[in-house]
Amino acid sequence: MTTKKDMEMQEQPFEDNDEIEKDEEDGEGDDMDSNEDSSSDDEVEVTASKESLEEMMQLEKVLRDSPYDYDSHIKVRFDAIFYDESIYWEFLDLVFNVACSGEDLSLIETIFEKACSDYLSVSIWLDRLRFLEASGKDAATLRQHYENALTSAGLHVSQGHQIWSAFREFETKLVEQEHSEKGRAAQYLQDRALVSEMERAKRLREEGYLQMERVRGLFQRQLAVPHSDHAHTLEAYTSWDASQSASPPSADVLKAYSAAVLKLEARLQHEAVVAEGKEPDATLLAAYINYISYEQSHGNPAQVQCIFERAVATFPVTHELWRQYTHYLEGKLRIAAVTRSAYARAVRNCHWVGSLWEAYMRFEESQQALPQ
Q1: Who's near 70: CB < 8 A, 6+ residues apart?
Q2: pTM
Q3: Is the confidence at residue 2, as pLDDT, over 50?
């Protein structure tokens, strides 16, 4: 059985990290919210030796191979089983197979919500959105869920385009639905003589214009972010826009598209080494660390957050990733709800790591000190 001393040794995976050592020895983590402009004060470089990475992978393997085995969790001083994406899928499959009442559907929705808030998973988000559509949610509610999905996973370079496409399909179906309903609505208004011919035409034009602009807006928003389906998206937009108007895509849209393509090309080498299906080993962890460092140097905060979320979804019990992530959120993003969520997940997945709990408590204490 792994001893307390062994676990303490496992909790030192990253070597010679000056800023982390400084935080631990001097207790200077309270200064994470400092407004200093120096990036060296707010960022901690993510580095690791080969030996350290292998130690972390051993811990990952124990939990991955025996997620339900009590003894395995005891060996790593775990008293609560962590939930990764595969376990959520097992839960969902089980409930789907036996669902026969409204309460079961409510449980499915709860599991989907929990899964999407715990880890970044495009596939879970897509299934959740399909489930919500099938359950009869109104358009406004579904639209908000799609926007939440984009916030969570829309910047996923290799998979995010799937959510953008699903959102556009949803809005396009509403366009088609409105077209079929307009004829009936126009006839009703005419038969009832409720409004004049001019007023009736104005109302129908306004309703149709709003929905068409939603579709156009989604195309343009998607073209402005780097993702792996850029060429197909531009082709689809050009074809769709030509069917709606005689003018080609505007210069501003094409300029944003070109800038996004350059960002994509700069990330392709990183995407290749973290591609889906790779074994979660030391090599993959090192690749994520390099990708995180690149985004911190070249990306915006949302892109940095996205790659961190992808990393912790792949390595949920690698506590140094959580430590780096929460440090970044406190020092750079500075959105309390986002930081609190990350800390809550960090201590649940790695709650044998005292430094995470300490940082979490310092964060909550700092929030209490803020003026209400």
Answers
A1: none
A2: 0.72
A3: no
